[in-house]
Design a protein that fits this description.
Layout lengths: L1 H16 L10 H4 L6 H6 L13 H30 L7 H18 L9 H18 L18 H22 L1
């Protein structure tokens, strides 16, 4: 509606002002109120409804991650969709694969309109989840050996140091969330 259009317009102006490097991850909701226009408040019948999202995922990525963040976001989805359209899946799994391809393509198109609505927050999460599944399926090639990502794990004293660091990080996180 008109309020969503006003939010997107204000968000675009906000993106231009946050500069090349953006305002930081998750900061849209913090900085947006200072950019709200009088017209948006009047369209909302004087209520002080605050939005936590730009109503356009690309603009929100630009606001929070700057131009590099927006370009990275576009690149990730471009590569994922390119690999998806290029892949010829195993016929036994083609319905699942093409379902993911349609889901990601449609979700991406929807994210330019209003995916980040407080009423449908899980839809945004599903876009990224589906894109991840599509990316995994897109690298699979029928008749070729599977590819495995191997992460070298240190051995001996370095492994013990790594375990201590992980335990310390877990304790710090637990302390942070309980205090």
């Amino acid at each position: 509606g008109p309020i969503s259009m006003e939010i997107r317009k204000t968000s675009f102006n906000m993106a231009k002002k946050t500069g090349l490097f953006g305002s930081g991850p998750g900061s849209f909701g913090i900085y947006y109120p200072s950019f709200r226009t009088q017209n948006e408040i009047l369209l909302d019948h004087g209520h002080n409804f605050l939005t936590g999202h730009a109503g356009n995922e690309l603009i929100e990525q630009w606001i929070e991650g700057g131009l590099p963040g927006a370009l990275l976001w576009l690149t990730i989805f471009a590569i994922t969709l390119y690999k998806g359209f290029k892949t010829r899946p195993d016929p036994a799994y083609s319905a699942y694969f093409y379902g993911l391809l349609v889901s990601v393509s449609g979700g991406l198109a929807m994210s330019m309109i209003s995916l980040n609505s407080p009423k449908i927050l899980p839809a945004g999460w599903m876009l990224y989840f589906s894109a991840g599944l599509l990316a995994v399926a897109g690298v699979y090639e029928t008749g070729k050996p599977d590819k495995v990502l191997a992460v070298p794990v240190p051995s001996g004293p370095l492994r013990k140091l790594l375990v201590i660091a992980i335990i310390a990080a877990g304790c710090r996180s637990a302390y942070f969330f309980t205090s």
